[in-house]
Write a structure and sequence with these properties.
single chain, Arc Repressor Mutant, subunit A, 2 domains, 3-stranded antiparallel sheet
Length: 283
Amino acid sequence: MARTNRKAPDDRLRLAEGRREAILELLQAQRAVTVGEIEERFGISPMTARRDLAELERQGQARRTHGGAVLPSTSSHEDSFSARMATATAAKRILAQAAAATVEDGEALFLDSSTTAYHLAEVLIREDRPVTVVTNSLPIVDLIASNARETIELIVAGGQLRRISRSFVGPVAVESLKRHWTDRAFLSVKGIAPDGTLTDADPLEAEVKRTMIGQAGTATLLVDGGKLDRRGLSVIGPVTDCEDVLVAGLGQNSELLAAIDVPGVTVRRLDRGDDPSAEEATA
């Protein structure tokens, strides 16, 4: 009996290892799996499924997402808001200044949860622009509430708080956004695929951005050059959903620029020191 008890943990370990190998094979075949799919296929609890995905992530063979996992080669990784605030800062500030120069007094604006939109909010506050801002970004809400005068009217799209991005997402946020029409939407993305598809790391964030684009008169995409050579897990839509694209920090990568320089989209390249009246190129 004692020998049976000693073997039982080993048997459970082998069973778990075999199951994780099978989950990895499924992941490699599909590039993405969900907790529900694993639960149904292997007859295990959601907790066990998440534990298996956590172990595969620890081994570097998977990257967990909200409700499942993807292969590490897929850009589902998402840095925190504070980490993103420390990257490509110069390019984002150039984009923000150029974007603010296109805004007319009295307009209503969607600002997404990107750090580039946060820098745009900083410019609007500094210039004391009389506009209405509708946003799902908690940092932008805090910034405007703490620093802006009454010239900026603030509308918050509430919902489920994603702590990593400090943004409100989910059905409540989307429904709130659908109750408003704005003149402009300013947004950024996780990355742009070679065919011009805009992507985000999280499906809930992607849904919010799609809604903002759909509810705005015009949509302006703000991207630093680094976003043109990677893509996220979730599709937002084609770049042609945006009328304008402002790009900074692109360097000489003209091949990737071709992904967004397409008919119907006005692309403006901004480099350090450029002013908002930089030359436009319309495909």
